[in-house]
Design goal:
Elements lengths: L19 H5 L4 E2 L5 E2 L5 H9 L2 H5 L16 H6 L3 E4 L8 E2 L4 E4 L9 H8 L14 H4 L6 H18 L3 H9 L9 H14 L16 E2 H12 L13 H31 L1 H4 L2 H58 L3
Parallel strand pairs: 3-5, 4-6
Antiparallel strand pairs: 1-2, 4-5
Helix pairs in contact: 2-7, 11-13
Pfam families: DUF6601 (PF20246)
Keywords: Membrane, Transmembrane, Transmembrane helix
């Protein structure tokens, strides 16, 4: 069997072979089985992954710990307060900022600016959840979310951009950071914003509850997840990628605690040298106890950090091994089906 060309001569010359939906969607998307497909091949599941924020909705009652219930500040304010704006396609990281002052912002999808796409894919739900049990692929697929929820998530994302881009300089910042399409002029944005405000699209009843809050602090989100799942290893989004970064993350507070312990021991040593405290039995007992703690405390913390790091590494290895076995079995199945030599 002779090998086939990966693409044709017309790939970079033809302009009429793409359907309208494909022009609005990303070039490719990833399925739950980690396979690359065209987003237009499965638009409902693509929209679910691209717009739904189930993780934040799950902890909605605790979001007041991570942010304030008010619209996000405009982009010019974000830069003025030394925040670094980062384009991030992950919807659950939209308007989440790290302690390093990096603010994650999801670029506004082009399909949310297309009326026909809204009518066809965001405003029509034929499932029993909306009183229509005529089975189609949306209703019959249990993994596909009701478009009513996706609809509210889409409204919420638009709502956040109405707040982020308030001034003409905000639009320039959005263009510079690839948050809005370049063909969106200030006049077009003005018309869009006014229509959204006048039509009630930004009414809080029409948006996902997550968007009642503006910017959210990642450190507090991680704390909330650790509290809910009662595990220091369970986090909303880990900021480190290696076990070494994990150890350094624990080493910082440990270093600060060690310095404080050294200061207390020095003060106790001075106190014991005085006649008033040196003869005080209670102070001597406290000094003895704190000295033992100063010797064993940092050692225990270092060992604990090492154990946590080792456990995290072993867990990652097991997860990676299982994923590799599952994926290679899937690849082998595909190879047999396609009869690839």
């Amino acid at each position: 069997m002779s090998p086939a060309l990966p693409f044709s001569k017309e790939t970079f010359t033809s302009t009429h072979d793409l359907d309208p939906a494909s022009r609005l969607l990303p070039a490719s998307s990833q399925t739950s089985q980690h396979l690359l497909i065209r987003p237009a091949d499965d638009i409902p599941n693509f929209l679910k992954k691209d717009l739904c924020i189930d993780r934040l909705n799950h902890i909605h009652q605790y979001l007041w710990l991570a942010g304030r219930p008010m619209p996000p500040k405009p982009l010019n304010y974000q830069l003025a307060t030394s925040r670094q704006i980062v384009a991030d396609q992950r919807i659950d990281m939209h308007l989440v900022w790290e302690s390093s002052q990096r603010l994650h912002v999801k670029p506004l999808p082009r399909y949310l600016l297309d009326v026909d796409f809204w009518v066809e894919h965001l405003m029509t739900c034929e499932g029993p959840c909306c009183g229509n049990d005529q089975g189609n692929h949306v209703a019959s697929d249990p993994t596909t979310k009701c478009t009513k929820d996706i609809y509210k998530c889409a409204h919420g994302l638009l709502y956040s951009y109405v707040s982020l881009v308030r001034f003409e300089c905000d639009l320039a910042i959005a263009h510079d950071h690839h948050l809005l399409p370049k063909d969106i002029t200030w006049e077009k944005w003005l018309r869009l914003t006014h229509e959204l405000l006048d039509s009630g699209a930004t009414n809080l009843a029409n948006i996902n509850p997550r968007y009642l809050y503006g910017e959210l602090r990642l450190s507090e989100l991680n704390f909330i997840y650790s509290f809910i799942y009662r595990s220091p290893l369970r986090a909303y989004q880990l900021t480190y990628q290696t076990s070494g970064e994990l150890f350094l993350d624990y080493l910082g507070p440990l270093t600060a605690a060690t310095i404080y312990i050294a200061l207390v021991l020095t003060a106790m040593q001075v106190g014991l040298a005085t006649s008033h405290l040196g003869a005080n039995e209670s102070f001597q007992n406290a000094s003895w106890g704190f000295t033992i703690f100063a010797i064993l405390g940092p050692l225990i913390m270092v060992l604990l950090a090492g154990v946590i790091g080792m456990f995290q590494s072993c867990t990652n290895l097991l997860v990676t091994k299982r994923l590799a076995q599952r994926q290679f079995a899937l690849y082998e199945k595909q190879r047999i089906q396609n009869q690839v030599p």
